[in-house]
Amino acid sequence: MEKYLTKTPEETKKLASQVAQKLKIGDVVLLKGDLGAGKTTFIQGLAQGLEVPEDYYVSSPTFALINQYPGRITLFHVDLYRLEAGEVEDLGLEDLLEEGILAIEWAERLPYSLPHSLLVEILVSSPTERQITIKTLKGESNDL
Ligand code: ADP
Ligand code: MG
Question: Which atom of ligand 1 lies closest to the CA of 60?
């Protein structure tokens, strides 16, 4: 488990871009944290680290449900905030793991576990400070 403190959104993105250097196809990044904590900001940094072209705007998927950004490795992005368990199951997230890296906002709403996961928890400690904890999970997201 590693703990970080960031003082700007740019620092959060830089940290995420460093994390991205260690990721490979089939890896899952589970993000937890309140609304406005910085989950989407962290994923913007993952995209930078994976060399997704700058003209791709990384924001939470809404109608599309799954966003896909072409980088050195493809990055898939889902946000489970508004989804019911049944809808999450219909997304077929496991299938994406053969093709790229998957980043999941509101991972606590995932009704099943995924392998090769990294858990990123973001706590708001001031308007501009975030405590970011990164843990490697042994395959199970249910035992968080
Ligand atoms: P979430 O996806 O968790 O709802 P967002 O990434 O969309 O959160 O929003 C985070 C907000 O917090 C942004 O407006 C961002 O500018 C702001 N912010 C301020 N300080 C930080 C920081 N240190 N790290 C990340 N975001 C920060
Ligand atoms: Mg978000």
Answer: 2
